[in-house]
């Protein structure tokens, strides 16, 4: 059947569910009629129409009038924690985009306040020649970790290659729990070169 979005809007909600039309019993007629439509959803929950993002880096205030040279337009700052509030009914997955295009880092880790974590073993980013050993696979500067139901993956965005093999055995596909969540981004070395942006939609059992 045809696939699309079932959308619900009112004064306080704007949500959707991905569905497929399995059956629509409508006959051609010039008169007003009633019909029954069957929708099938592999993920039977409503999600926020708006995608939310939160990251471990920001830009502090820059120049103001009057100014003198040299002018500072803003400074990138990193506190290595990401706070997210789950406004939905239950835990859900997210997409984390990791950028290490300036410098390199070793053994990347995203830890949750629950005690669980995602750990990517090895060197990532622009790796100096002296650190390129027999396992060197080329520079990997952009990584996407997807923990959403039905989409769980770890991908090198430069090549499309799966990086699941670099997950440590203790790694978990983290979920955003109900209420306040605090994620901490760490690395054995080079954390100052790591930028993480988490994208997510609140999920609801019903509307």
Structure commentary:
Mean pLDDT is 81; it is low at 58-77. The strands form 4 sheets. Strands 1, 2, 3, 4 and 16 form a 5-stranded antiparallel β-sheet that branches. With 207 residues, this protein is mainly β. It is built from no helices and 16 strands.
Features:
single chain; 207 residues; mainly beta; five-stranded antiparallel β-sheet; elongated
| Gross geometry | elongated
Largest sheet: 5 strands, antiparallel
What value does the average pLDDT take? Answer: 81
Taking pLDDT < 50 over at least 5 consecutive residues as the criterion, the unreliable ranges are: 58-77
DSSP E strands, number? 16
The total of helices stands at 0
How much beta, percentage-wise?
35-45%
Distance between the termini: 25 Å
The helix fraction, in percent, is: under 10%
Radius of gyration of CA atoms, rounded to a whole number: 22 Å
Given helix and strand content, the structural type is mainly beta
Helix and strand sequence: EEEEEEEEEEEEEEEE
